[in-house]
Amino acid sequence: MESVRKQEDYKVENRTREEQKREEMLQRIRGFRLLDDDFMTKCFEENTEAVELVLRIVLNKPDIKVEKIQTQYSMKNIQGRSLRLDIYATDSQGMRYNIEIQRADKGAGAKRARYNSSLIDSNILPAGFEVENLAETYVIFITENDAIGRNQPIYHIDRYIKETEEIFGDGSHIIYVNAAYRDDTELGKLMHDFSVTEPDDMNYKVLSDAANYYKKDKEGIQTMCKAMEDMITDEKKMAAIRMLKSKKLTLEEIAEFLELSLPVIEELEKEQQEK
Question: What is the DSSP letter of 94?
């Protein structure tokens, strides 16, 4: 009888813990903005209209037609180092666009922009094609704060010839959008939409509809919860790899500390040994 009571108490405690975790997750979802990259990439996933809206406003090109979108897209350099792009898109003219959300200023530095641009270049020219056919590229950082610090809503960075002050014209463009800037222009309204938590407060319907789906629709909330769970698991796996490299804890201790199964930790250890 005592054993049965303990089992029931455990079930109730476990159920309460799971309900608490779910409520905490729902609370996080309610507080998400498009400036949170995980939420943004989910709202823009396969959402051609939303990506077109952002590109048309940021670039002031109302005729951009997006044909392909990839979110959380991984690229590798020749040394095998990976970089994950928030949004990678191609338009009907073959131009390539990388849109990055950065809440921390250090994640949107000049060297990061240069690296993103160079990595895209190295991945888009097929073997046998002339370099002159290299596609035009745009790396766009949408930053929570004014990353450049000159109190402008948007900054365009292009190479130019110093002596003549003419644009060099290599087809590589870097743009910083200051999400803290507010005015009644299309860009100001767009940055407002990126900064609010309530979808009904947004100006652009395509963004409001996407945010509403992942915040208020039952199926959308389930999808967002699953994405967050996967993200948390990935973060735990990265932490486990660091712990494995330090060799200070046993596999069992790592599994218990991170709340991962022992087989998962063993598989991570095997992968590290094979590298």
Answer: -
- 246-267 pLDDT per residue, tens: 989 899 999 999 988 999 999 9
Bridge partners for 98 per DSSP: 88, 139
Dihedrals phi, psi of 113, to nearest 5 degrees: -65, -45
Summarised one tens digit per residue, pLDDT across range 2-29 is 565 655 655 555 667 778 888 888 999 9
Calpha distance 165→168 (Å, rounded):
9
**Residue 18: predicted pLDDT:** 76
Of 101, 104, 135, 141, the C-alpha closest to 121 is: 135
- pLDDT higher than threshold 60 for residue 154: yes
pLDDT in tens, 45-66: 999 999 999 999 999 999 999 9
Q: How many CB atoms lie within 10 A of CB 35?
A: 20
Distance CA 205, CA 217 (A): 16
Q: Collapsing DSSP states into helix, strand and coil, what is residue 71?
A: strand
Q: What angle do CA 42, 259, 224 make, to 5 degrees?
A: 15
CB 254 within 8 A of CB 240: yes
Whole-angstrom distance, CA of residue 119 vs CA of residue 262 = 36
Under 8 Å between Cβ of 114 and 133: no
* Alpha-carbon gap, residue 238 to 75, rounded angstroms: 18
Helices (H), 60-151: 110-124
